[in-house]
Structure formats: structure tokens, C-alpha cells
Specification:
Elements lengths: L1 E6 L5 H13 L3 E6 L9 H8 L15 H8 L2 E7 L1 H9 L5 H8 L4 E5 L3 H5 L1 H12 L3 E2 L3 E4 L5 E5 L3 H14 L11 E6 L4 E2 L5 E2 L6 H12 L3 E6 L11 E4 L3 H12 L4 E4 L6 E3 L20 E3 L3 H10 L9 E8 L7 H12 L3 E6 L10 E8 L6 E6 H18 L5
Helix pairs in contact: 1-2, 1-8, 3-5, 4-7, 9-13
């Protein structure tokens, strides 16, 4: 595939070198067109070395090849990253003052803008109008990530991670100009891993969760255009790039983090394996095994029901400005009194969440495995939906279902 990679004049230009590497390593032919301002951040030599192609931003270089026409005509995809406020304005108004803006006017294939700028610039009415203009013409404009900006400021305006832009670009080509990220502009909070409840400074009560499913969900939500916050309990896998990570250990810590994160979340996915109980007392020193002592007795107390509390907060108007969707997970084994789905349906009724993802767990099932098989139950009463395969594939189905629910069904219906 022939890709034109336009680089705007922002500090985030340095991250685009990694995006270029992703494109070239995937076998694509990439022509980089930096603006004049972009070369003040990353030099032309870097783009030429990484792309293996000559780099120019002038319409007067190689005039005999008519590059200001040819590059746009030949490109299968044009990606602009970072798309600064200035570049978005020029593209929306159809300016053609350099090689990049000329190429945009000549582009026949899909065009993807990955914005990066200060929060106030992104939220300014002029920028928002320019974004809407570009989208109305068929261009895809990603929502910027939220986080630390240049200096001490923080907010929406960060360039999405290179992996996010790469995945969005390939998906755009597959879907052509009608492609739209299903969770673009949404904030999604996901809990992952297993909580640990301390007995003493050495020992704890825990579970077999590896965090693989939660991490896969975070990747799928990120790739769907969401700003993702991962509440990470104990995990055997690293968190993905491009998401905010909030480390937690115990159920009480997870509760505190989840309630805080839910305030600005459009979706909350509680996929972590949360301990139902914790020791009523935690020893300050290691509990010793002595020959002359009786066996220790550990008294357990219930942990808070975080999922139910999130639903109650949402339903009480705690997030009145948001139509928040809450997704729970149920790890069931079934017993002589009922099967997995029977217990799950009762849990869905009891918890009140909008979707419940159910899996049949066991010593050699789900926990720590790379595959999963789930059933998605909906409070709206729609037919159960099954998903099976790798945890990446299962996550894609879950995120797709969440996107459908957000765009077609009221979460409180």
C-alpha cells in the first residue's frame, strides 16, 4: 500500500517516527511530507532514513514529477499526524500553500487526521467546526488522547499512541471512507487482573486471574478510538501502550479507584477478579507457625460490591450528564443447585448492570489461558450473545457490542 504520511509542526512529531516504523515494517511504501514547522522538531534526515524515500515539503522540488498532483493521486491512504490546529484549519478551508496541503486536495483515497494540540485549542469552536467540516467531507478525524501535555497541563489534546493510529489507519482502508471508530470520543474505564487481600506482610488471599482478558479489552477499546483508563490489579501481563494505568492491589483500593474513574467515564467494564472477602484483621508481622500453638483461625469479612455500587451511583443521577453504560463480568462454576447461566442471570438481576459477560471458570479454564468462551447477557432482555476464540477476538466482540449499545440502545432502558 502506498501511504502519504503528513507531519504537522507540533512537539508530538517525534512520536510519528514510531508510526512510520510501524507502516514500513508492515511492508507499506511511505512518503513522508513534513510541514516546514515540523522540520524544526524532527529533521528531514530522520524521515528519509526511516522511510527509505526522499523527503520534501516544497512544490518546487522535482517539478518534472508534478509531485503536488502525483502524490495525492497515487496514495492509497493519507495520514496526518500530528494534525495541528493550523493544519486542520488549512485542510478544512482548502488551502494549498505547500506540498502537504496540495496533496490533501488531490487525495483520492481515505484520509485520516490524528490531532494533537493544547486542550483549549482542541476545544475552541473554530477547531471543532473545522473537524466537523472535515468529517462531513468523508475524512476520519481521531479524538485526541487525554493526559499530560507539554508543560504541566493535562487534558484532551495528546497525540494518540502510534499503535492506535496504525490500527485506525488500516481499518479505515478496509472500510474506506465510511469508516468510523465506534468508541471515538468516549472514555472507557476497565478493571483487570486479580485483587490481593493481605493476611500479613508476606501472605495474601488471591485468585488465579492473569489480567489477560482485561488487557485485551483495553487494547480493543483503545483501537476503537476510546480514551482508556486501566485499573490494574495483580496482572501477569504488561499493560498496553496508549492507556492510562491506575495500579491497585486490594478490593478496597479498586473500589476507590473505580468510583473516582466512573465520574468521567462513558463506559465502565469491571473485568477484574475481585475478592469477595478479606481478612477482618491484618497482622503487622508475619504469622508464625509454632509447634506449641493451635492452628490459626482467620475470620473473613465481605468486601464491598463495587459493581452494584457503580450501578446505584449511576442510577441515582451521580453522572446525570452522561448516559453511562456499565459492564460486569461473572466467573461461574455452577453446582448441584444451578448451572453457570442460571447463576449469571440471577447475578445480572441482582447487580443491575447493562451487560454481563459470563464465563465458565475452572482450574484449567479461562484464568491464565489465551482463549476464552463467553456469553453476553443484556439487562434489556435481548438474546444472549456467544463469543469464543482468543481473548483478543473475544474482546473485539465485547467492545463491538458495547459500541452498538451506546449508539442504539439507552443503557437505562
Amino acid at each position: 500500500m502506498r501511504i502519504v504520511l503528513g507531519v504537522g509542526g507540533g512537539i508530538a512529531a517525534y512520536k510519528v517516527a514510531s508510526l512510520l516504523r510501524l507502516f514500513t515494517e508492515a511492508g507499506h511504501h511511505v512518503t513522508v511530507i513534513p510541514t516546514e514547522a515540523a522540520t524544526r522538531f524532527v529533521g528531514t534526515a530522520t524521515w528519509e532514513a526511516l522511510s527509505g524515500n526522499p523527503v520534501s515539503n516544497s512544490v518546487f522540488d522535482d517539478v518534472h514529477q508534478v509531485n503536488h498532483v502525483r502524490l495525492g493521486h497515487e496514495a492509497d491512504l493519507v495520514v496526518i499526524a500530528p494534525a495541528t490546529a493550523d493544519l486542520l484549519a488549512k485542510a478544512a478551508s482548502g488551502q494549498a500553500g505547500d506540498l502537504l496541503t496540495n496533496t490533501l486536495l488531490m487525495a483520492h483515497g481515505p484520509v485520516l487526521f490524528a490531532p494533537a494540540m493544547h486542550t483549549e485549542m482542541w476545544q475552541h469552536a473554530a477547531t471543532r467546526a473545522n473537524v466537523e467540516t472535515l468529517r462531513s467531507r468523508g475524512a476520519a478525524v481521531l479524538e485526541p488522547a487525554t493526559g499530560r501535555l507539554t508543560g504541566s497541563d493535562s487534558g484532551p489534546g495528546r497525540l494518540p499512541e502510534p499503535e492506535v493510529i496504525f490500527d485506525a489507519a488500516l481499518a479505515l482502508v478496509q472500510g474506506q471512507s465510511d469508516y468510523q471508530l465506534p468508541l471515538a470520543g468516549r472514555t472507557v474505564t476497565i478493571s483487570a487482573g486479580g485483587t490481593r487481600e493481605p493476611l500479613d506482610p508476606v501472605r495474601f488471599l488471591g485468585n488465579r486471574s492473569s489480567g489477560k482478558q482485561g488487557v485485551a479489552l483495553a487494547v480493543a477499546a483503545r483501537n476503537a478510538g476510546a480514551t482508556v483508563r486501566l485499573l490494574a490489579a495483580h496482572m501477569e501481563v504488561p499493560p498496553p501502550a496508549g492507556v492510562e494505568v491506575v495500579p491497585v492491589e486490594t478490593a478496597l483500593q479498586l473500589r476507590e479507584a473505580a468510583l473516582a474513574a466512573a465520574v468521567d467515564s462513558d463506559v465502565v467494564i469491571m473485568s477484574a477478579a475481585v475478592a469477595d472477602f478479606r481478612p477482618s484483621e491484618v497482622s503487622d508481622t508475619k504469622i508464625k507457625k509454632r509447634d506449641d500453638s493451635a492452628d490459626p483461625v482467620i475470620t473473613l469479612v465481605r468486601n464491598p460490591d463495587i459493581l452494584h455500587e457503580l450501578v446505584e451511583l449511576r442510577n441515582s443521577g451521580g453522572h446525570a450528564e452522561r448516559q453511562q453504560l456499565i459492564v460486569g463480568f461473572a466467573a461461574e462454576t455452577g453446582d448441584s443447585h444451578g448451572d453457570v447461566l442460571a447463576y449469571a442471570e440471577a447475578k445480572l438481576e441482582r447487580k443491575g448492570c447493562d451487560l454481563l459477560v459470563v464465563n465458565h471458570v475452572g482450574a484449567d479454564k479461562v484464568f491464565g489461558q489465551d482463549t476464552n468462551s463467553v456469553v453476553i447477557l443484556a439487562r434489556s432482555g435481548s438474546e444472549p450473545q456467544e463469543a469464543a476464540g482468543t481473548k483478543t477476538e473475544v474482546s473485539a466482540t465485547i467492545i463491538s457490542r458495547i459500541g452498538f449499545e451506546l449508539n442504539h440502545v439507552s443503557p437505562r432502558a
